[in-house]
Amino acid sequence: MEQRYSKQEKRFLIALFIAYTAAYISRTNLSPALDSIQSAFGLTAAQVGLLPTAFALPYAFGQIVTGFLVDQHRPQRFMLLGLLGSACMNIAFSRAPGFAWCLGIWLMNGVFQSMIWTPLVRIVQRYFRGEVRARALFHVSITLIVGYLCAWGLSGFITAAASWR
Length: 165
Prior knowledge:
Blueprint: H1 7-28, H2 34-41, H3 45-48, H4 50-69, H5 75-94, H6 99-113, H7 117-127, H8 130-141, H9 143-161
């Protein structure tokens, strides 16, 4: 018989789903706007390609560091810091005066984004019973699809209707 989520687990699942969808939106919203950013700053394809690289390096390294830290500290705090920091970096990116600023801001977005997934997994491990834990992670993994669709849809629409900024 399939185990059901408790009330507390349902609340956690909804919060984690919303949080990680927001994380995906603030991570993948750049891709649809890259052509506009390239044109706005007069960049080559190689130069604009530095943006995803500037994000990926601290993101990958930060995942490892965060993994160690969430074992000693409350994972909710890391998630909150990561989400708020990433939101601030997205706002700052839209107001960046030049490409060098964009690179630095997107690098910092990678740092903040690295503080989200590992704490999320730790929260699921800590607050979900063994019988429903794997299902909870599966349900949260759906945010990858939801977040991508939202990010590409919103970013593409906003870029076409107004500007990448």
